[in-house]
Amino acid sequence: MRKTENQQIEHFIKSVEVDERFVGIWSGTDHGKFFKGETNSWLVNRKADGTMTVNFKTIHNDDHITYSEDVGIWCAIGEEYYEFRESDEKADIYTYIFLSKNSIHFIINEELKEEEPYNFIDNRVFLD
Predict the structure, then answer these.
(1) Do 81 and 22 contact (CB within 8 A), yes or no?
(2) What pLDDT was estimated at residue 4?
(3) In this structure, how many other beta carbons lie within 10 angstroms of the beta carbon of residue 1?
(4) Is 101 left (phi over 0), alpha (psi -120 to 50) or beta?
(5) Best mean pLDDT range from 2-6, 77-81, 95-99, 113-117
(6) Cα 109 to the chain's mean position, in Å?
(7) Average pLDDT for 69-97
(8) If you placed Cys at 75, which of 16, 19, 45, 87 could pair as Cys (CB 3.0 to 4.6 Å)?
(9) pLDDT at position 127, please?
């Protein structure tokens, strides 16, 4: 994606009013749904200014574990959640459903294939 497209996405996301329900620290895992044979888990901190940080832990096929961190921006419009991380070439767009005020089910918006679409649940992390 060209830099100007990224700037347009960033401007779009930053122009949207923040949905306070998403703000806070959330954890989740994909249980190997994204890449077969590896499990990703994460902590995401969505801030009220529309910025975010994500800390990933990946357990690979051979039980080797890697850690990474990414930063980005986010917003929610209607029933769609937009997330653009610096490591991505384009924004991810998900349909979301609040299962409770502390649990969100995300389903990626992409052309359906033979398998179920990538989806996961984020759960609010409560700090002492």
Answers:
(1) yes
(2) 63
(3) 11
(4) alpha
(5) 95-99
(6) 12
(7) 92
(8) 16
(9) 75
Nearest CA among 58, 113, 117, 47 for reference residue 83 = 47
CA angle 67, 105, 123 (to 5 degrees): 55
Q: Retrieve residue 3's tokens.
A: 């830099």
**Whose CA is closest to 84, among 71, 69, 97?**
71
Domain extent at residue 48:
3-124
- 74 close to 92: Cβ distance less than 8 angstroms: no
Residue among 85, 94, 32 nearest 60 (CA): 32
Given the structure tokens 């990414």, which residue do they identify?
70
Cα–Cα–Cα angle for 106, 126, 45, nearest 5°? 55
pTM of the model: 0.84
Give the residues across from 70 on adjacent strands. 54
- Please give the tally of structural domains in the chain: 1
Average pLDDT along the chain: 88
**CATH number for 29:** 2.40.128.20
Residue tagged 């759960």 (tokens) = 123
